[in-house]
Amino acid sequence: MDQAHIHLLIVHLPLFGAFFGLLVLAHGLWHKSDQTAIAAYNVFIISAIGATIAKLTGEGAEEAVENIPGVLESAIELHEDAGFWAFVSMLVLGTVSIVALYFTKVKSAQANLLSRVVLVLSLFCLVMVSRAAYLGGQIRHTEISGASANQTEGEAEHED
Predict the structure, then answer these.
(1) Does residue 109 register a pLDDT over 60?
(2) Which one of 23, 56, 97, 106 has the fewest CB atoms closer than 10 angstroms to its CB?
(3) Architecture in CATH of 3-159
(4) pTM for this structure?
């Protein structure tokens, strides 16, 4: 298994982790359940680790597809830029989740405020990761990019 395979497998973890973690945390806040919030924090931490692996395997994935006919360099660059900011946002979410996890476990008065901060961060991360995923899908999935598989980069630029 090469970096491209690992990248394609792992990139789904931050996307679905941000989505399901947000739902779990919202449920935990609604029902005032520390255990449910802790579960959400763990999902966010694991998702941040997944985002790190996706970032580390991104270059290898790029090298695997950049010379394939129909793959546009501009699509790769857009995905790479969006992926970087999704990665940064997931690292922030993971780090704040570690802090919130600690504050929740020690029953700090700041735990409730931190859980709300994590909820807002998770929504932001979901948007960032969704955008990176969408742009990544456009690299090889012509059904969402609108470009034909045989289209050259020059042809695609003239359509914009």
Answers:
(1) yes
(2) 106
(3) Up-down Bundle (1.20)
(4) 0.86
